[in-house]
Specification:
- The complex is a heterodimer of chains A (246) and B (484).
- Chain A is built from eight helices and no strands.
- Chain A is an all-alpha fold.
- The longest helix of chain A is centred in the first third of the chain and has 27 residues.
- The two termini of chain A are 13 Å apart.
- In chain B, strands 1-2-3-4 form a four-stranded antiparallel β-sheet. A four-stranded antiparallel β-sheet of chain B has the order 5-6-7-8, with helices on one face.
- The chains are: A mainly alpha (246), B alpha+beta (484).
């Protein structure tokens, strides 16, 4: 659990917002809203990541939950790996936007869940009676159980965590750039879940995505800019979580 | 009932690929069929296709687990009678004419002599004149949560038998209990029953709403409450499925809720919630300051008899169990163990050194939530109303088995391969929601999605299984889209 309450609250608010946005994006794809295309797997992964990060911030869950997360995000990483060759052309047809970024996010999740005991002073996952309620995070209180000094964190684990954080921050910079350069309102109803070249005008309807409905007020709020901001927020939040583990 | 020709404007009804479409599937009635439209609230228009989809897919994939739970549950309902038959030698004695019951201490001493390696855990005096006294021991070599029980003839102190028991359950009932809960697979097997319990309420509620709302529009209450006569084929199956489901819905919701309280993951959350709301089952305070007599087997036998006498003198009636102290400075506890209506669950903590009652807790004083939990557990196990409970649970299990079977039969009758045999069915399937495309309206999907996230966190097996399903569906859709 993150020892800093304000940071926990901040991350909770952040991930509640990204989770809610992802839920709406996923629902818009399921509803076949006109002009909305993207990758349902990516939206689901956003939603699950957001929920998992909130749970991680409050140490909700246990060993079984951790194992399930590792399996889940490994499978998702495998999926995004298969999407990599499709790349830009796939995104243009409504496929996964930025599969490389999503791959990075999934691997970061796997790393954080798997390496947490290593980074948190050598305590095994779920050592606190099957839950991690007593597992501190955030550096303020990193003593081991029973007052014992924490086991030293292996340097390679620190290096990997820092590398992950840097990569996530680089991704955040990329999404920030896209958020700034993308018009607040797309000129054509086509760009939600856009591909690598966000902001470009692309055909509104991918060939295999009919029938569609005209967007309402909520769907209209799901703009490419907000999409980029959502990715930005998730990147920053995940990098922050990575760094608090050190 | 004839099938309906579906126009493309009806897309989004949410039926699964390959389903043959019939008027009821579309929410149409015979009276409304000519125009093919009915006036419905927007929320229901949006929600219904999604509920249909949830009910169909959840039923399809969770059906086997529910079927196993219903079958093993049905077997479990017969165990009280089977137990009396199989273990009659241990449970019953012939009452000699004019004979008196021996002191409880003598009976416990006889049991201890029969099982010298055991340490006394509990004593249950007989509940009828021809019953045996159960002396329960912790003993080496028995599985976790199990004990060794020595059955003593209260008139002769002879040992009638020694069995490995699970709580108060004898081996036969314990085996069926384990089968129902875990399929004899231990903690891994508990996931199956949690999966079934996690989805049963979803299926019951979604089915109930779909069935009642549709039939209410058609204003034919009788066809809602009882299966339709004269209907044929899939219509007849659906009529039976819906009508039986309607009557069984309350029972299914009850079984789901009480089953989840026992489950591995959701059960932990339920316990946490109950603790936070102070709904936990209360217990008597056993801490005492006085020093107790030396703790030997012979001494315990005598003390058990003494504390029972004190408890009875203070109005605690049979059936009871007597529990030795859990450690130094603790009192003995005598607790009523009647789990049928009206329940007797009063308990007393007694200081054996002074013969005084340290604390007393009456069932009437339990918080309402704790009482409801007690009644719920006992009703789920068929104990609350005796034979009537057993019959009701057996009927519920049979109903569930039938509904699952009818459900699969309906699916089989409209299976995807039939599309090739029926051009009209193929047209209907294409016109209705193609797989992975439009499910329903955004508000309905987002609302159900948000509810699923919240419920999924509280019921982890439900959340995880739903997520797996959605991911498989999404991945399949994305790969299919990439191919096209």
């Amino acid at each position: 659990m993150i020892s800093s309450l304000p940071l926990s609250v901040l991350l909770t608010v952040l991930y509640a917002a990204t989770g809610g946005y992802s839920l709406l994006r996923w629902a818009s794809l399921g509803a076949g809203i006109s002009g909305h295309h993207g990758d349902r797997v990516a939206e689901l992964s956003h939603l699950v990541m957001s929920v998992a990060m909130i749970a991680m911030a409050w140490a909700y869950g246990g060993p079984a939950g951790n194992a399930a997360q590792i399996v889940l995000f490994t499978v998702l990483a495998g999926y995004f790996l298969t999407r990599l060759p499709v790349g830009r052309s796939g995104a243009r047809l409504g496929g996964c936007p930025a599969p490389g970024f999503h791959l990075l996010m999934c691997l970061s999740m796997v790393w954080m869940v798997a390496a947490m005991p290593l980074l948190m002073g050598g305590m095994p996952a779920g050592s606190a009676g099957g839950h991690m309620h007593d597992m501190p995070m955030g550096g303020a209180d990193s003593a081991g159980q029973d007052g014992q000094p924490p086991a030293p964190t292996p340097s390679w684990a620190v290096v990997v965590t820092v590398a992950m954080s840097v990569a996530l921050l680089a991704a955040a910079a990329y999404w920030l750039r896209r958020a700034v350069r993308t018009p607040a309102r797309p000129e054509v109803p086509a760009l939600i879940g856009g591909g690598e070249a966000g902001g470009e005008a692309r055909p509104a309807e991918p060939p295999a995505r009919s029938p569609r409905r005209a967007p309402g007020r909520v769907p209209a709020a799901l703009t490419p800019r907000r999409d980029a901001v959502c990715h930005l927020a998730m990147s920053v939040g995940m990098a922050a979580m990575c760094l608090t583990m050190l | 009932m004839s099938d309906v020709t579906v126009s493309s404007t009806t897309s989004g009804t949410g039926l699964a690929p390959g389903e043959l479409i019939e008027p009821d599937d579309l929410g149409l009635t015979e009276s409304s069929m000519p125009t093919g439209s009915t006036v419905r609230a927007w929320w229901w228009r949006e929600l219904r296709p999604l509920l249909l989809r949830v009910h169909f897919y959840a039923g399809l994939f969770v059906g086997p687990f529910l079927l196993i739970a219903a079958l093993t549950g049905l077997l479990y309902t017969t165990t009280p009678q089977l137990e009396q038959l199989v273990h009659r030698d241990e449970l019953h004695v012939s009452v000699p004419a004019g004979a008196a019951v021996l002191p409880l201490s003598a009976q416990i001493a006889a049991a201890s002599a029969a099982l010298p390696e055991g340490s006394l855990k509990e004593v249950r005096p007989p509940i009828s004149p021809d019953g045996t006294t159960r002396v329960i021991f912790n003993a080496p070599g028995v599985p976790e949560d199990y004990s060794r029980t020595v059955f003593i003839d209260p008139y002769t102190a002879q040992v009638r038998g020694t069995l490995t028991t699970f709580g108060e359950w004898l081996p036969l009932r314990a085996w069926f209990d384990e089968l129902h809960r875990t399929l004899l697979l231990g903690n891994v097997g508990r996931v199956y029953s949690e999966l079934a319990a996690s989805w049963l309420w979803v299926l019951a509620l979604s089915g109930l709403v779909i069935w009642v709302a549709r039939r209410r529009r058609s204003r034919r209450i009788r066809h809602t409450l009882v299966p339709r006569r004269g209907a044929g084929g899939r219509g007849r199956l659906r009529s039976w499925h819906g009508a039986v489901g309607l009557w069984a819905a309350v029972g299914m919701l009850f079984l789901s809720a009480t089953g989840l309280t026992w489950s591995q993951f959701a059960g932990t959350n339920v316990d946490t919630l109950r603790g936070a709301l102070q709904w936990t089952t209360p217990s008597v305070q056993t801490t005492i300051s006085a020093s107790l007599p030396p703790d030997t087997a012979a001494n315990r036998a005598v003390l058990a008899e003494e504390v029972l006498a004190v408890a009875r003198a203070h109005g605690l009636s049979d059936p009871v169990k007597i529990t030795p102290p859990g450690g130094p400075g603790r009192a003995w506890v005598v607790m009523q163990v009647k789990r049928s209506w009206p329940e007797k669950q009063d308990s007393m903590a007694i200081n054996p050194a002074t013969g005084t009652v340290v604390d007393q807790l009456r069932f009437a004083d339990w918080p309402l939530a704790a009482k409801l939990a007690r009644w719920g557990v006992d009703a789920h196990m068929g104990l609350l109303f005796g034979l009537a409970s057993q019959i009701a649970l057996a009927a519920l299990a049979i109903g569930l088995i039938c509904m699952i079977t009818w459900g699969y039969r309906m699916w089989w009758l409209r299976r995807p391969t039939r599309i090739a045999e029926s051009p009209r069915a193929a047209e209907s399937a294409r016109a209705l929601a193609p797989p992975g495309r439009r499910w329903s309206g955004l508000p309905a999907i987002a609302l159900l999605g948000a509810v699923a996230v919240g419920v999924g966190l509280f019921l982890p097996v439900f959340g995880a299984s739903l997520l797996v399903f959605l991911l498989i569906d999404a991945i399949r859709t994305e790969f299919a889209s990439a191919r096209t």
